[in-house]
Protein backbone atom coordinates (compact mmCIF):
# COMPACT_ATOMS: atom_id res chain seq x y z
CA UNK A 1 0.00 0.00 0.00
CA UNK A 2 2.82 2.37 0.95
CA UNK A 3 4.51 1.63 -2.36
CA UNK A 4 1.28 2.39 -4.27
CA UNK A 5 0.91 5.72 -2.38
CA UNK A 6 4.49 6.61 -3.20
CA UNK A 7 3.92 5.85 -6.88
CA UNK A 8 0.73 7.94 -6.94
CA UNK A 9 2.47 10.83 -5.15
CA UNK A 10 5.39 10.69 -7.58
CA UNK A 11 3.07 10.60 -10.60
CA UNK A 12 1.04 13.51 -9.21
CA UNK A 13 4.21 15.53 -8.66
CA UNK A 14 5.33 14.72 -12.19
CA UNK A 15 1.98 15.89 -13.66
CA UNK A 16 2.16 19.13 -11.65
CA UNK A 17 5.72 19.75 -12.84
CA UNK A 18 4.68 19.08 -16.44
CA UNK A 19 1.75 21.49 -16.11
CA UNK A 20 4.04 24.17 -14.70
CA UNK A 21 6.47 23.66 -17.56
CA UNK A 22 3.65 23.94 -20.10
CA UNK A 23 2.22 27.07 -18.44
CA UNK A 24 5.62 28.72 -18.29
CA UNK A 25 6.25 27.81 -21.90
CA UNK A 26 2.90 29.35 -22.82
CA UNK A 27 3.80 32.49 -20.87
CA UNK A 28 7.04 32.78 -22.80
CA UNK A 29 5.17 32.24 -26.05
CA UNK A 30 2.40 34.71 -25.27
CA UNK A 31 4.46 37.55 -23.81
CA UNK A 32 5.40 38.94 -27.19
CA UNK A 33 9.10 38.67 -26.50
CA UNK A 34 8.67 40.84 -23.42
CA UNK A 35 7.54 43.83 -25.47
CA UNK A 36 3.90 43.71 -24.40
CA UNK A 37 4.77 44.13 -20.73
CA UNK A 38 5.18 47.92 -20.94
CA UNK A 39 1.45 48.48 -21.36
CA UNK A 40 -1.79 46.57 -21.23
CA UNK A 41 -3.11 48.77 -24.05
CA UNK A 42 -3.89 46.86 -27.24
CA UNK A 43 -6.14 47.58 -30.20
CA UNK A 44 -8.60 44.73 -30.67
CA UNK A 45 -10.10 45.54 -34.08
CA UNK A 46 -8.10 43.62 -36.68
CA UNK A 47 -10.56 44.58 -39.41
CA UNK A 48 -11.38 42.43 -42.44
CA UNK A 49 -8.80 40.77 -44.67
CA UNK A 50 -9.44 41.15 -48.40
CA UNK A 51 -5.87 40.41 -49.52
CA UNK A 52 -4.97 36.97 -50.88
CA UNK A 53 -3.20 34.77 -48.32
CA UNK A 54 -1.10 31.74 -49.28
CA UNK A 55 0.98 29.15 -47.57
CA UNK A 56 4.40 29.05 -49.18
CA UNK A 57 3.71 25.57 -50.54
CA UNK A 58 0.59 26.85 -52.32
CA UNK A 59 2.20 29.59 -54.39
CA UNK A 60 5.27 29.00 -56.52
CA UNK A 61 7.78 31.70 -57.37
CA UNK A 62 6.57 31.72 -60.97
CA UNK A 63 2.97 32.17 -59.83
CA UNK A 64 4.06 34.99 -57.52
CA UNK A 65 5.75 36.80 -60.41
CA UNK A 66 2.83 36.33 -62.79
CA UNK A 67 -0.03 37.12 -60.41
CA UNK A 68 1.28 39.51 -57.77
CA UNK A 69 4.77 40.96 -58.23
CA UNK A 70 3.61 43.81 -60.48
CA UNK A 71 -0.15 43.67 -59.89
CA UNK A 72 -1.36 43.56 -56.29
CA UNK A 73 -0.37 42.75 -52.68
CA UNK A 74 -0.26 39.24 -51.27
CA UNK A 75 0.38 37.69 -47.85
CA UNK A 76 2.64 34.66 -47.59
CA UNK A 77 3.04 32.25 -44.68
CA UNK A 78 5.90 29.90 -43.98
CA UNK A 79 8.31 31.37 -46.53
CA UNK A 80 11.20 31.32 -44.08
CA UNK A 81 12.07 30.14 -40.58
CA UNK A 82 13.19 33.11 -38.47
CA UNK A 83 12.98 31.40 -35.07
CA UNK A 84 16.52 32.40 -34.11
CA UNK A 85 16.05 35.98 -35.30
CA UNK A 86 12.83 36.20 -33.28
CA UNK A 87 14.60 35.10 -30.10
CA UNK A 88 17.32 37.69 -30.74
CA UNK A 89 14.60 40.35 -31.05
CA UNK A 90 13.16 39.76 -27.60
CA UNK A 91 13.20 42.83 -25.37
CA UNK A 92 15.82 41.48 -22.98
CA UNK A 93 18.12 40.35 -25.80
CA UNK A 94 17.98 43.59 -27.77
CA UNK A 95 18.49 45.75 -24.68
CA UNK A 96 21.42 43.59 -23.58
CA UNK A 97 23.22 43.80 -26.92
CA UNK A 98 22.07 47.16 -28.30
CA UNK A 99 20.80 49.18 -25.33
CA UNK A 100 23.65 51.70 -25.49
CA UNK A 101 23.60 52.03 -29.30
CA UNK A 102 22.09 55.21 -30.69
CA UNK A 103 19.05 54.88 -32.93
CA UNK A 104 17.56 57.49 -35.24
CA UNK A 105 13.88 58.30 -34.78
CA UNK A 106 11.73 59.91 -37.47
CA UNK A 107 8.44 61.75 -37.22
CA UNK A 108 5.51 59.55 -38.24
CA UNK A 109 4.06 61.71 -40.99
CA UNK A 110 3.98 61.38 -44.76
CA UNK A 111 6.55 64.10 -45.42
CA UNK A 112 8.97 63.46 -42.58
CA UNK A 113 11.69 66.00 -41.84
CA UNK A 114 12.51 65.78 -38.15
CA UNK A 115 15.12 63.28 -36.96
CA UNK A 116 16.21 62.60 -33.38
CA UNK A 117 19.09 60.39 -32.23
CA UNK A 118 18.75 58.70 -28.83
CA UNK A 119 20.20 55.60 -27.14
CA UNK A 120 18.07 52.55 -27.84
CA UNK A 121 17.51 52.07 -24.09
CA UNK A 122 16.09 55.61 -23.89
CA UNK A 123 13.77 54.96 -26.82
CA UNK A 124 12.37 51.86 -25.10
CA UNK A 125 12.02 53.57 -21.72
CA UNK A 126 10.59 56.91 -22.86
CA UNK A 127 9.29 56.92 -26.43
CA UNK A 128 7.89 53.39 -26.81
CA UNK A 129 4.31 53.97 -25.64
CA UNK A 130 0.72 53.84 -26.92
CA UNK A 131 -0.41 56.43 -29.45
CA UNK A 132 -3.10 58.99 -28.69
CA UNK A 133 -5.65 59.75 -31.41
CA UNK A 134 -5.13 63.51 -31.10
CA UNK A 135 -1.33 63.41 -31.43
CA UNK A 136 -0.02 64.73 -34.72
CA UNK A 137 2.42 62.74 -36.80
CA UNK A 138 5.01 65.49 -36.46
CA UNK A 139 4.90 64.97 -32.67
CA UNK A 140 5.27 61.19 -32.89
CA UNK A 141 8.81 59.80 -32.96
CA UNK A 142 9.00 56.41 -34.63
CA UNK A 143 11.90 53.96 -34.75
CA UNK A 144 11.91 52.47 -38.22
CA UNK A 145 14.15 52.55 -41.26
CA UNK A 146 17.13 54.65 -40.23
CA UNK A 147 19.22 51.71 -39.08
CA UNK A 148 22.98 51.84 -38.72
CA UNK A 149 23.81 48.66 -40.63
CA UNK A 150 27.35 48.49 -39.23
CA UNK A 151 26.13 48.45 -35.62
CA UNK A 152 23.10 46.22 -36.26
CA UNK A 153 24.78 43.83 -38.69
CA UNK A 154 25.19 41.18 -36.00
CA UNK A 155 21.39 41.06 -35.76
CA UNK A 156 20.44 41.45 -39.41
CA UNK A 157 22.77 38.67 -40.55
CA UNK A 158 20.48 36.19 -38.81
CA UNK A 159 17.34 37.36 -40.60
CA UNK A 160 16.23 35.17 -43.48
CA UNK A 161 14.52 37.47 -45.97
CA UNK A 162 11.72 36.31 -48.29
CA UNK A 163 13.21 34.30 -51.18
CA UNK A 164 10.82 35.63 -53.84
CA UNK A 165 13.00 38.47 -55.12
CA UNK A 166 12.00 40.50 -58.15
CA UNK A 167 14.32 40.17 -61.17
CA UNK A 168 17.21 42.66 -61.21
CA UNK A 169 16.62 43.81 -57.64
CA UNK A 170 18.29 43.33 -54.26
CA UNK A 171 16.91 43.81 -50.77
CA UNK A 172 17.63 46.46 -48.12
CA UNK A 173 16.41 45.99 -44.55
CA UNK A 174 14.44 48.43 -42.41
CA UNK A 175 13.95 47.34 -38.80
CA UNK A 176 11.58 48.88 -36.29
CA UNK A 177 9.85 48.68 -32.92
CA UNK A 178 6.75 50.72 -32.09
CA UNK A 179 3.95 50.96 -29.54
CA UNK A 180 0.26 50.12 -29.98
CA UNK A 181 -1.69 52.70 -31.97
CA UNK A 182 1.40 53.94 -33.80
CA UNK A 183 2.07 53.53 -37.50
CA UNK A 184 2.91 55.50 -40.61
CA UNK A 185 0.25 57.35 -42.64
CA UNK A 186 -0.24 56.81 -46.36
CA UNK A 187 2.83 57.05 -48.55
CA UNK A 188 4.39 55.14 -51.44
CA UNK A 189 7.78 53.95 -52.66
CA UNK A 190 9.27 50.94 -54.40
CA UNK A 191 8.17 47.32 -53.86
CA UNK A 192 8.95 45.35 -50.76
CA UNK A 193 8.05 42.90 -48.02
CA UNK A 194 7.07 43.48 -44.41
CA UNK A 195 7.28 40.79 -41.74
CA UNK A 196 6.01 40.99 -38.16
CA UNK A 197 8.34 39.45 -35.57
CA UNK A 198 6.26 40.26 -32.47
CA UNK A 199 2.81 41.80 -32.22
CA UNK A 200 0.22 42.51 -34.93
CA UNK A 201 0.27 45.11 -37.70
CA UNK A 202 -2.78 46.22 -39.66
CA UNK A 203 -2.18 47.30 -43.28
CA UNK A 204 -4.22 49.52 -45.61
CA UNK A 205 -3.31 49.72 -49.32
CA UNK A 206 -4.45 51.44 -52.52
CA UNK A 207 -3.17 51.04 -56.10
CA UNK A 208 -1.01 53.85 -57.54
CA UNK A 209 -3.84 55.40 -59.54
CA UNK A 210 -6.17 55.61 -56.51
CA UNK A 211 -4.72 58.13 -54.06
CA UNK A 212 -6.46 57.86 -50.67
CA UNK A 213 -7.96 60.84 -48.85
CA UNK A 214 -5.80 61.60 -45.82
CA UNK A 215 -4.03 64.43 -44.02
CA UNK A 216 -0.23 63.95 -44.23
CA UNK A 217 0.28 65.04 -40.61
CA UNK A 218 -2.56 63.02 -39.07
CA UNK A 219 -1.74 59.57 -37.77
CA UNK A 220 -3.09 56.31 -39.13
CA UNK A 221 -4.95 55.85 -35.83
CA UNK A 222 -6.87 59.09 -36.36
CA UNK A 223 -7.58 58.10 -39.99
CA UNK A 224 -8.93 54.73 -38.85
CA UNK A 225 -11.19 56.28 -36.21
CA UNK A 226 -12.36 59.36 -38.12
CA UNK A 227 -12.17 58.73 -41.89
CA UNK A 228 -12.18 54.97 -42.43
CA UNK A 229 -15.69 54.29 -40.98
CA UNK A 230 -17.26 56.76 -43.44
CA UNK A 231 -15.55 55.67 -46.65
CA UNK A 232 -17.84 54.90 -49.60
CA UNK A 233 -17.65 51.31 -50.78
CA UNK A 234 -15.69 52.27 -53.89
CA UNK A 235 -13.04 53.98 -51.73
CA UNK A 236 -12.48 51.07 -49.36
CA UNK A 237 -8.83 49.94 -49.16
CA UNK A 238 -7.27 46.56 -49.52
CA UNK A 239 -6.41 45.60 -45.96
CA UNK A 240 -5.34 42.86 -43.59
CA UNK A 241 -3.71 42.37 -40.20
CA UNK A 242 -0.53 40.35 -40.28
CA UNK A 243 0.86 38.36 -37.37
CA UNK A 244 4.29 36.95 -36.47
CA UNK A 245 5.69 34.77 -39.24
CA UNK A 246 3.46 36.30 -41.91
CA UNK A 247 4.92 38.40 -44.71
CA UNK A 248 3.04 41.03 -46.72
CA UNK A 249 4.30 41.91 -50.19
CA UNK A 250 3.36 45.28 -51.75
CA UNK A 251 4.11 46.20 -55.39
CA UNK A 252 5.85 49.32 -56.67
CA UNK A 253 4.18 52.69 -55.97
CA UNK A 254 1.25 51.26 -54.04
CA UNK A 255 -0.10 53.63 -51.38
CA UNK A 256 0.05 52.05 -47.93
CA UNK A 257 -0.43 52.94 -44.27
CA UNK A 258 0.16 50.83 -41.17
CA UNK A 259 -1.27 50.58 -37.67
CA UNK A 260 0.43 48.59 -34.91
CA UNK A 261 -2.23 46.88 -32.82
CA UNK A 262 0.27 45.85 -30.14
CA UNK A 263 3.78 46.84 -29.25
CA UNK A 264 5.33 45.41 -32.41
CA UNK A 265 8.75 44.39 -33.70
CA UNK A 266 8.92 44.27 -37.49
CA UNK A 267 11.30 44.28 -40.41
CA UNK A 268 10.83 45.24 -44.07
CA UNK A 269 12.83 44.25 -47.10
CA UNK A 270 12.77 46.99 -49.72
CA UNK A 271 13.50 45.80 -53.24
CA UNK A 272 15.44 48.12 -55.50
TrEMBL record:
Keywords: Signal. The keyword Signal applies. The keyword ATP-binding does not apply. Residues 138-272 form the JmjC domain. GO terms for molecular function: cis-regulatory region sequence-specific DNA binding. Pfam families: Cupin_8. GO terms for cellular component: nucleus. This is Jumonji domain containing 8. It comes from the Eukaryota. Residues 1-25 form the signal peptide. PROSITE patterns: JMJC. Coiled coil: none annotated.
Amino acid sequence: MEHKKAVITTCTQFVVICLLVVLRAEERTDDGGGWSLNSDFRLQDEGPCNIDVFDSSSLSYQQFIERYAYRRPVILKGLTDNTKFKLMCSKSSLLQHYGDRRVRLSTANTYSYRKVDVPFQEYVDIFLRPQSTDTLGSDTLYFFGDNNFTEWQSLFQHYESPPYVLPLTSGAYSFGIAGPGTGVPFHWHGPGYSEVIYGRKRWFLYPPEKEPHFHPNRTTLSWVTETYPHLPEDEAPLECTIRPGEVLYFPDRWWHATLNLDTSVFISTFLG
